[in-house]
Amino acid sequence: MPLFGVPLFGTMQRAAVDAAGVANIEGDSMNYDEAMEATVSRGEAMEEIRLHPTGAGFQIDWHSFLDEVGDASDYLGAEVLRWLGY
Length: 86
Hints:
Elements: E1 15-17, E2 23-25, H1 32-37, E3 39-41, H2 42-51, H3 58-69, E4 74-76, H4 77-84
Antiparallel strand pairs: 1-2, 3-4
């Protein structure tokens, strides 16, 4: 479900981060504050960047993200959203 008309962690459903920092899927799309606090997988970060094209193309966007944020198995939602300009 898009937030403000733009997919925002649209590939994820509502997630509650448990004590280990792992997102637990519950059901609805998350809002901005929840997305900022979420932990997302590398694949979920890739999908979110694919859904928010900058005009440069997905491969360029993804490699730019990796150069600027780093290559990890998980990311904080805030890292992905800040990179996207939110």
